[in-house]
Amino acid sequence: MGQHTVEKIGGTSMSDYRSVRDNIIFKPTQESSMYQRVFVVSAYSGMTDKLLEHKKTGDAGVFALFAQERKQNNWFPALQDVRSAMLDINHTLFEEGELRHKADTFLSSRLQEAQECLEDLHRLCQHGHFSISEHLATVREMLASIGEAHSAWNTAHLLQRDGVNAVYVDLTGWNSPSHMSLDERILDAFKDVDLSKELPIATGYAHSETGLMSTFDRGYSEMTFSRIAVLTEAREAVIHKEFHLSSADPRLVGENNAVPIGRTNYDVADQLANLGMEAIHPKAAKGLRQSGISLRVKNTFEPDHTGTLITGDYVSDAPCVEIIAGCRGVFAVELFDQDMAGDIDKFDVAILKVLNQFHAHIIAKDINANTITHYLAINLKTLKRVMRVLHERFPEAEITQRKVAIVSAIGSDMKTTGMLAKAVKAIAEQNVNVLAMHQSMRQVDMQFVVDEEDYEKTICSLHKELVEVHNHGRAICLAS
């Protein structure tokens, strides 16, 4: 292992430069020196939504408009909106003068080149021999890269202004003369960086010959962060967020009741990612776990707090519920067909093919003799497309949809008698009807499907029963 850490700063934190500088850069946790650290930065909050599409609502950004409007230029005003928003950020961060001019010039150059590429591609694909669909993955990567290049360039130069020997590490491959694998690009970019006296600020997007977004989509910055940590043999990986990884959402259970988890393992992190509450993308976590690199999740605005340490081998001293988490706005899609009995595999494979076609994220799944229900984290537009295709593929089936919420109790070790019974009792006492329930033999989480309006009551009741009664020890333990 090296002496250094690799640290990722999220988009919301990035939007507050002063806090990033004072709470992260000027307050290193390991030594008096601010060096022996590598920083991987996300785009400023909301910028990737504008460049691609809104992550939660699906509202079209530049990429989505370019992909949809094959014979129009509706993407152009959206790109100008991005330009204005990014320049506004520059004018907030930099005082008038040479440095602001350099920042604006760097940004304008990237945006202008991107605009010219889109215009050229649009014209080219007006000819019948060229299909725009063959180039959309590349367009998506190009547009995404602008957000991280913007924030990384700004941060490196602001830190230089403030007395830090920061260096901008551009992994975007912009105007690169050759294609490289992700690992080759990272190793090439860092080969001349001296971590003992330089502070690299790297783009969260890294270009590779196979493309990051085709596999990781919006989780690409976490993959970049993970590979840098693995390839440079970091002693620890750190993610700085605008909140602690807490036992529940403080806004729901109360700030005095929610506590930072403190310690957990990568298995728990995977369960959180499945609910859309990503501590880290599961495939990025895999590399850290296999390399024996621990992950620390810290709150940007509480720099003296050690945060939560995630390791591969941690198991609580006694069976524990470490966190109550969940997601609302989930769609339960249920397909019933009498012919399914005895031939369920055929139906299961066909349904999954449809869901994969629309990149629908499956949180959970129920199967019985003649019914398959998938719980999907998708927007309404995608749901309508999924339902239409399912009705076409299964004309004799009864296919229904319902909006629900899923609440999970999660822990590194929950193998104890009576925990599930306590959870169900706590929910029932709030007059909440459990629509479905899941617990695997691995026993690291219990999932409860409830009506969306019962989401908050379910979170609070489970937290009170499984967490608050145990006096907030470092983890929430139930003696077996």
Automatic annotation (TrEMBL):
<dbReference type="InterPro" id="IPR041748">
    <property type="entry name" value="AK-Ectoine"/>
</dbReference>
<keyword id="KW-0067">ATP-binding</keyword>
<dbReference type="InterPro" id="IPR036393">
    <property type="entry name" value="AceGlu_kinase-like_sf"/>
</dbReference>
<feature type="domain" description="Aspartokinase ACT">
    <location>
        <begin position="407"/>
        <end position="466"/>
    </location>
</feature>
<comment type="similarity">
    <text>Belongs to the aspartokinase family.</text>
</comment>
<dbReference type="Pfam" id="PF22468">
    <property type="entry name" value="ACT_9"/>
</dbReference>
<keyword id="KW-0418">Kinase</keyword>
<dbReference type="Pfam" id="PF00696">
    <property type="entry name" value="AA_kinase"/>
</dbReference>
<dbReference type="InterPro" id="IPR045865">
    <property type="entry name" value="ACT-like_dom_sf"/>
</dbReference>
<feature type="domain" description="Aspartate/glutamate/uridylate kinase">
    <location>
        <begin position="5"/>
        <end position="299"/>
    </location>
</feature>
<protein>
    <recommendedName>
        <fullName>aspartate kinase</fullName>
        <ecNumber>2.7.2.4</ecNumber>
    </recommendedName>
</protein>
<dbReference type="InterPro" id="IPR001048">
    <property type="entry name" value="Asp/Glu/Uridylate_kinase"/>
</dbReference>
<keyword id="KW-0547">Nucleotide-binding</keyword>
<dbReference type="InterPro" id="IPR054352">
    <property type="entry name" value="ACT_Aspartokinase"/>
</dbReference>
<dbReference type="GO" id="GO:0004072">
    <property type="term" value="F:aspartate kinase activity"/>
</dbReference>
<keyword id="KW-0808">Transferase</keyword>
